[in-house]
Amino acid sequence: MRPFFILLASLLGFTSAVTESYNGQYADNCPSLCAHAGPNPANWTNIHHVRNLESCDETVLFGLNIHNSVADPNTILTIRACVASEGQTYEAAASPDVPQQPSQLNLIVAESCGAKAVEKAFTPQVGPSTLSKASSAAPQSTHVAEATRQLALFVDKSVECGTTILFAKHKSAVVGLYSGAQITKHAVRGFLDTFAEKQGSTVQICQPSSAALTVGVVSAGFGDLAATQDAIKDWNNGLCLDETIPGTPVIMDVLVSTVDKSLNPPINTTTISHGNMTTRGKPRALLPRGECRTEEVHGGDSCASLASRCGISGTDLSKYNPQKNLCSTLKPKQHLCCNAGTLPDFHPLPQPDGTCNTYKVSDNDGCSDVADAHYLTQQDIEDFNKNTWGWAGCAHLQSGQLICLSKGTLPMPSPVQGATCGPQVPGTEKPSNGTALADLNPCPLNACCDAWGFCGTTIDFCTKSPADTGAPGTAKPGTNGCISNCGMDIVNNGKAPDQLKTIGYFEAFDQTRACLRMSVKEIPANKYSHIHFAFATVTSSFDVDIRDVEYEFSKFVKMNGFKKILTFGGWAFSTEADTFQRFRDATKKEHRETFVNNLVSFMNRKNLDGFDFDWEYPGAPDIPDITPGSPEEGDNYLAFLQLLRSKLPSEKSLSLAVPASYWYLKQYPVKDIAKYVDYFIYMTYDLHGQWDVDNKSSMPGCQPGNCLRSHINKTETHDAMVMITKAGVEARQLVIGITSYARSFRMNDASCSGPFCTFAGDKRHSMAYAGPCTTTGGYISNAELNDIIKNPGNYSIVKSYIDKDSDSNILMYGNPGAVDWAAYMDGDLKTNRINWIKGLNFGGTSDWAIDLQNYSNNENGDDDDDDDGIDDEASDETLTCPSDKNPGTLDGLADIADSLDSGCVHLFALDILYSQLLDSLSLFQTNSEGYDDKFGWYEKWTKEQIQPRIDGYMKLGEGKGLKYFDCYWAYTGGKEKKDSCLGMPHIWDVTAGWSIRYDLVDKKGFFDALAAETGIDESWVTFGDETSDICADPGDTRPGTGSLPCRKLFRKKLNYPQKGSDDKIHIGNPKKLIEASMGNVTALRTSLLSSYLSVGLSFYDDGPNDTSATDAVVAYSMPVLQLAEAINSMKDIKEIGEDAKEQAKKNLIFKILTIVFMVIPFVGEALGPLIGSAASVARIALLIGEAGNGALTVADIIEDPSSAPFAVLGLIAGAGGGSGKLSKAEALAEASKARGLLKGSDLAKFPQRFRDQDALVQKVVKSLCARS
């Protein structure tokens, strides 16, 4: 129950790479970090749709079974992936143990994987710049280079022995690697480096007779992932790519048997070892006549290592085992002959405990290969696996999958990182009590579990779709396949309620609004069975607190005709920094008794009919800006309700508001809570809102999450009703939420229709018009919408219709280029929704909120009720100031102030400031149109300055940054020498190729000085290589021969500081600051209006604590003028175009920085995530070389949180309606003093326009003070 609702998708972090949305779990935009998951692909994130891979903007390493084509819509995919974070250094994985076998020769078992490495010359074949099978745009070369770099790093540090198949994606590029089992990893790393330099589409060293000696790299645009997969598949199958040309021969290390001399003449034979392992020869076992002596293949083996263990050459191994492509099709548990003869019978046998003989599928496995290697037929494998978990048939082998190669009991499937339900949750043990695998690790709330191990509540999760094999744990291509708690039917609704409840919520806090200020006594008689009065709160001593709503509450308790229920909490109380801990503490064991006793005592004194609790939400881990909830809070809530129920009289009701979101509801033990409450208020609204932006799982088919959706969608309401009834709550105990407000959005294109029209703004900031009463963009009452329909006013576009798909009223309103879309329920739609709910045997409906339905007869705040026992405070004398005497401007008032009554000066001054504030808010809407384009240029221009400033700071021979580095320099082909970077020879003055490698020896000193000198933050800098070239001096040329072609000399700067990628450089948008400030702007507006009314009604006289209306004028003027300056600055920049000259660009930047500095005090703690510190913003001036510009000197004041701008606004916003430590009058007096402490020298730092307006205020104040 709240006027504002924020639902944020919670990322469980890169470790599990799962997005938790309101209706279930989905794969995150990116898989887990490689740094967290480790080098073993078994621990990487499983992805089942290419779109989930494509949506990640990071560099991703991934593998998949190359036989499952990504281009085939009927393919079932398992892609194992991890994110290669910047600066990634992969931990080395331990190589699999190579068993010590009897041999007459020494065996070398280390980095050479049980063989020996020899150098051999190969001729690479280079492909064209674009892959021949490519159909999409070619990737950017820098993207290819980064993907290749990450592959090289991984191969160098992590790849084990054996065949390597791996892909990397970076933005537009995908790069695939195939390395046969006899290519050393050191050689592969060098080969990848060569590929990065050549930048062709492919480079291969292909041996058609032996894929084990083949290595290839292929690149393409990500849209051509299928083409790169086909290239890898060809290499694996012993085929070579066509349309290549020979390159320069290279020397590579390959693995051979330790007794092998077949690769003669080796250039150099190298033993690669951390230490030799030797065994003495032993007598060979006697074998039956005709059977050969054998070696078993283990993970990471190659023909070379097997021949070494056999004690024979590679040639002999091939002679004794003449299978086609032997060395590229080795499989674990396969056996090879070490001498002449036939293989013994090695058909796989069940394990000793009766479990079948298991096999883990690799990225290059096909059924036929696995069958051939294990002396089986493909049909044998199909027969053994009819009921194996995840078995979708031989055509759909999945990387990492466990399958059976014999009869026997079925194995547990491989664990999957990130799975939260089903048998593949890591750490799950095989059941011994007959429990079906699908029933292991059920989802909270009895939600559906899909085949990938994710919980959810929609049709995507809850529909069974087994593969054609019918095996458990499978899903048809393109589906998720429910495995447990399946179905989308409402259950537990066999009995109708004894009484259909019609509940209305009354917002007692509506009295703080400028309009829609309904009195509780205006609630219509006989329309509602229950009225929930919102909100009471809880004190720090765990007692009932109604001070903020006491006036309305005193009338409420005297009313009759409905059940009087007091509601505690609400969104604000549950989530604001000062109060979020109250419910958490009050329900703990040590405070529970005190809280319950205080509640019971209060109910007895006030003669209420019940209590309603709206804690949003116990155990929630992701509410912004507060400490995450703890897992025990749900159980604490249950224990509290149990205790309260035991102490309340049986005729008193107890109810609970619960969210219609799986993500938040799963922390509530609702099945047990249902035993102690009379009914639940089920908040089936706010199903969508501004918060959906960037949540790809918030709405099917809309990856950006910003498609227009109704927050009261009937289908989604039905799904929520399914969820909670499946969780064990009876339908008749559930009161379903309906609303008297809309969620509104600014349409990106007002001419758009259909489900994929989008809206503007980010997840925390709506661009929609604020209503005159609700004053919040994105949230507007039915009363305000009806007023727009009847009286469009300034809106030239007003269109209403019913969206049948969501069963919602839709209103579109605004002006060309700025049209809002709002979804809501009118009276007819509410009636239909109520009848539908009634027909399903639910307990009734609750309407949020009564006071949002129509404008009140109490808009002036006085319902003429003098029987409430509360004294009116109005003065006997009401100030009379003719409106035609109000000049309407500060300069006009300053001119005539001396001739006016002081009370009228106060009244007119506050009226003018209030009007300026409203004008600023209106101007913000106007200035916002087209502003984002200007900001885009500002961001672009700012980022363009970074590299030139770095280069100037690092200028060869003289740059101020050089002193923090050592330089290792060399002429091309020469040996490196070390010098200080300032003292090294000036090799750049010589016409020669050279390289300089920079070694940063004082990191802190460098970045501190860089920021001070140039304004560049450390996070904006990366280190990389930079290559340039010049033409060598051609020398003397003969007459008539023409110009000789350029012979390029390359100059390289290695590990040189460079501008990081644009997406890593955060340049905050000042408009977001203004949007984020709206909470405090609303508080300012409310407080200013209240003070204006107080002066007009003569409530505000000189007080006993030296407070006066003059304090209000002084205090309010500063923030009002700051906001006006910021928004006027937005107007000033609108004429600056993209192709502006340099000075105009700088003027734009200064105007934008002015917005920042003027608005920062309104934003407070929200500043950091949006913009950064004031000091970091000011550094932009350093970046563009204008540090002394006067427009930025105000930063000296703004970055001090104790300065006047902060102090004034803090006192005003903190006092609110007088509920803080100081009364409002006292707070304004303190704010006035804070403004008075602002020195003239400090004021001079503010923009001229602000100073001019402030001078007028001071002139008015001087006139007032002269009379005292």
Topology, element by element:
Layout: E1 10-11, E2 18-21, E3 24-27, H1 34-37, E4 45-47, H2 50-54, E5 60-63, E6 79-83, E7 116-122, E8 125-126, H3 141-157, E9 164-170, E10 173-179, H4 185-198, E11 202-205, E12 215-221, H5 225-236, E13 245-246, E14 250-256, E15 269-270, E16 294-296, H6 303-310, H7 314-320, E17 335-337, E18 358-360, H8 367-373, H9 378-384, E19 402-404, E20 448-450, E21 455-456, H10 459-462, E22 482-484, E23 501-507, E24 530-538, E25 544-545, H11 550-556, E26 563-569, H12 571-575, H13 581-586, H14 589-606, E27 610-614, H15 633-647, E28 653-659, H16 662-665, H17 670-673, E29 679-683, H18 714-726, E30 734-739, E31 741-746, E32 761-762, E33 765-766, E34 779-781, H19 782-790, E35 797-803, E36 808-815, E37 818-824, H20 827-839, E38 844-848, H21 890-896, H22 902-928, H23 931-944, H24 946-953, E39 965-971, E40 977-980, E41 994-1000, H25 1003-1014, E42 1021-1031, E43 1048-1059, H26 1070-1076, H27 1078-1096, H28 1109-1132, H29 1142-1163, H30 1167-1170, H31 1174-1183, H32 1195-1198, H33 1204-1215, H34 1224-1236, H35 1240-1243, H36 1248-1265
Parallel strand pairs: 23-24, 23-38, 24-26, 26-27, 27-28, 28-29, 29-30, 30-38, 41-43
Antiparallel strand pairs: 1-2, 2-3, 4-6, 5-6, 5-9, 7-14, 7-15, 8-11, 8-13, 9-10, 10-12, 11-12, 16-17, 18-19, 20-21, 20-22, 24-25, 31-34, 31-37, 32-33, 35-36, 36-37, 39-40, 39-41, 42-43
Helix pairs in contact: 3-4, 14-15, 21-36, 22-27, 22-28, 23-29, 25-31, 26-29, 27-28, 28-29, 28-33, 28-34, 28-36, 29-31, 33-34
